Amino acid sequence: MRIRRFLIDSDEQVVVKVLREVLDLYRISVADEAPAFEEISVRSETSEGNPLRVRTEAVFIGADGTARRRSTEGAARAGENPRAERHRLIKLNFYRLLREELSLAEAPWGILYGVRPSKIVHRWLDSGLSRSEIIARLSEDYGVGEDKAALLVDSSLYQRPFLRQSDSRTVSIYAGIPFCPSRCLYCSFPAFVLPGEKMLRRFTEVFFRDLAAVREAVARYGFRVQNIYVGGGTPTSLPDKVFDEVLRALSESFGSDALVEFCVEAGRPDSLTPAKLESMVRCRVNRVSANPQTMQARTLRRIGRRHEPEDIVRMVSVLRAAGIPCVNMDVIVGLPGEDLGDIEDTMEQIARLAPDDVTLHALAIKKGSRLKETLSETELPDDGTARAMFAVAMEHTRRMGLRPYYLYRQGYQSGQLENVGCCRSGAESMYNIQIMGERQTILGIGGAATSKIVSPTQKYLRTSFHPKEIAVYLDKVDDYIEKRARLLREVYGEQGD
Questions:
Q1: Are 173 and 98 within one domain?
Q2: 168-192, pLDDT tens digit by residue?
Q3: Measuring CA to CA, how many Å separate 41 from each of 37, 53, 443?
Q4: Is the pTM of this model over 0.90?
């Protein structure tokens, strides 16, 4: 749907952002071509008091010039930040008015926006709210559907015992290897096709300098490394010798009795060699992500993968034979040209492989991806089909005995859905729980890596981003090492006092 003009009575950046997010929920764009409405205008009034109240009025002027005026109001929650509550109410009010005027169905997640909705649930759990109270509040405050609210709360409750295994001196390590054999259609990650030997050698020299600085920080502050996650990109795209050097350096620097999880992403079966498998076993890697995304051969070709479904089967077999304790598999729901039959077949094939953990991703249309650039030429399942496909995939994980244990969302996901990790008991990824909970310090090494430094009181966190551009990382690594070190000093003191 198109509207010619969208007018807001505020130039406050957050207000503009949240109102436009509501339009995006229903794919309503502002354009001159064949608009359904000449204008939609929104104004909100805030009444200070206890509680704070927000009244929102929207005027809808149709293409024929007729105007309809609608209004609603809501009250802030006690104990919440008044400014955040004002913005939430403006967004919720407009969401309700737009749905009423256009007879729109509820969005699955209502107005809840952001990558980590579980953080809200954990905060409410910390304050003593019960499961039923939080589900009701998600519905009342954000318009979240009951099934999504229950999924979010139950996966958050699952995480609680694992989050309690960490303290202010427990950290995780992320090692970013930003190289892949090729670039997938949907990918917007800062990954590059594997470079030549000279550039690769320079990258590893810089990477090891970066790693040495983190090793020194771990010793200085008395950190205990709980998890090592080697991601990217596709780390197994590295040459065998370089891959071995990276794994050995990580293992020797951070391996100890405190280490719970050492995970390597090996998403491309065509990049896993016997030598790399031997390196992983020798360095005691205990979790590998073997990510098919789909088991449909035609889709694999369409999205730019160089393997066949049979290669995934062989890969899982060799990982099991090598004694890797936990194998994770990622599936993307809503890939170009796929339908209910395709996801049914993919999940049946994956079930036969008996993975310990399956992460279901709803396809996200990401800026910078080839998919985004060619969207008008690409056949994608509509939202209703995507939701039905996701339901089929979730049902298969249930039949496999896997339970949802972490959840996150991205912008512009098919069907306004989510990404859900499901696992058998004992196969939970501690790193995934920690990265989504943001209650543990995570130190990033390598290309496009992020460090998240959480205060000992968990009241705030500081972030440091390594550059996405590989040339900038190579040339300026010392600046980024110093920035990370400065943030550590700010949060933990000079010696972790």
A1: no
A2: 999 999 999 999 888 788 887 655 6
A3: 11, 20, 46
A4: yes
